[in-house]
């Protein structure tokens, strides 16, 4: 029996900073944990989490209570564990850059990604554990635009979002909703006060357009077609295993590949320039994406 399919000897496992402070990282990290458990490579660990995470991020772990216990992450490694998996500051780990995020987490949990079936590389842990709750005021079906990420470096500029909304309004009949501020031709998506409501917002969409963000990972979990635009990261590092999601990659001049955090205003201007200079191409891809959704329907 290979090391990847055998049960680990450690009876008590601690995962330090499992799995990060952003919603997207948490969704993917919990999928890696789910896959490791399904393959018999890991039991029930304790995830030691930072206490300064946003409430929406913390809430996601309540929906995964059957997968792990939770503890507060401090400077002191907790005693009494047979194995400690340390993924503190993983965003700065060279091994995190240039690889699929799910693969990075799987390897740290002792699983060879090549041995994992495709169904366990998708976000299949989520939908069975979260009952989506539609936020008040949603239409029955709609197209959802998600222009914001957890950091400004990946946000969709306002001028490009306006063109995307205009194209959606012209090319299909469903109402268009956008997160963030109001824009002509679209309604503003209602506020989601819980993770279940955020899931409801995604699950109720006929299709989505998103920047590189957690909304893309939720689209996969709830089988919602999504056109996702990437700038600082190659799509295969984030959505390689999502069959209903299409990627559009906009390389940014002057920025290192896999840049995780903005180093200043020049980085933000470079990303905005990449979006704006390729707006025509984005619209063309959007039209093609919409055509495929019509055919599929």
- Which regions are unreliable across 5 or more consecutive residues at pLDDT < 50? 1-7
Q: Provide the CATH architecture of the largest domain.
A: 3-Layer(aba) Sandwich
The radius of gyration computed from the alpha-carbon positions, rounded to a whole number of angstroms, is 19 Å
Helix proportion: 25-40%
Query: End-to-end span in angstroms?
Result: 45 Å
Q: How does the major sheet shape up?
A: 6 strands, parallel
What would you give as the CATH superfamily of the largest domain?
A: Glycogen Phosphorylase B
Number of strands: 10
Secondary-structure topology with pairs:
Blueprint (H helix, E strand, L loop, with lengths): L12 E4 L6 H16 L7 E4 L5 H8 L6 E4 L10 E4 L14 H8 L33 E5 L11 H14 L4 E3 L8 E2 L6 H9 L1 E7 L2 H8 L4 E5 L14 E5 L15 H13 L1 H18 L1
Parallel strand pairs: 1-2, 1-4, 2-3, 5-6, 5-8, 6-7, 8-9, 9-10
Helix pairs in contact: 1-2, 1-3, 1-6, 4-8
């Amino acid at each position: 029996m290979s090391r990847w399919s055998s049960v680990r000897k450690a009876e008590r496992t601690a995962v330090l900073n499992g799995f990060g402070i952003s919603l997207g990282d948490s969704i993917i990290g919990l999928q890696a944990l789910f896959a490791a458990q399904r393959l018999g490579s890991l039991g029930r660990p304790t995830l030691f989490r930072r206490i300064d995470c946003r409430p929406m991020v913390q809430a996601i772990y309540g929906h995964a209570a059957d997968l792990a216990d939770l503890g507060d992450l401090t400077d002191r490694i907790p005693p009494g564990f047979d194995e400690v998996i340390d993924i503190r500051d993983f965003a700065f780990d060279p091994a995190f850059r240039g690889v699929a995020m799910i693969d990075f987490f799987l390897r740290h949990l002792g699983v060879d990604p090549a041995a994992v079936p495709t169904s366990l590389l998708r976000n299949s842990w989520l939908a069975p554990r979260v009952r989506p709750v539609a936020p008040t005021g949603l239409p029955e079906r709609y197209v959802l635009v998600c222009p914001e990420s957890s950091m400004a470096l990946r946000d969709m500029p306002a001028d490009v979002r306006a063109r995307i909304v205009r194209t959606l309004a012209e090319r299909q009949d469903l109402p268009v909703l956008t997160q963030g501020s109001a824009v002509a031709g679209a309604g503003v998506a209602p506020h989601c006060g819980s993770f279940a409501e955020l899931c409801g917002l995604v699950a109720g969409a006929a299709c989505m357009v998103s920047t590189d963000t957690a909304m893309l990972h939720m689209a996969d979990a709830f089988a919602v077609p999504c056109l996702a635009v990437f700038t600082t990261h190659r799509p295969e590092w984030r959505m390689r295993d999502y069959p209903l999601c299409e990627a559009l990659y906009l390389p940014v001049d002057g920025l290192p590949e896999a840049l995780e955090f903005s180093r200043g205003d020049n980085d933000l201007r470079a990303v905005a320039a990449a979006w704006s200079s390729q707006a025509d191409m984005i619209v063309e891809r959007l039209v093609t994406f919409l055509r495929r959704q019509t055919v599929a329907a």
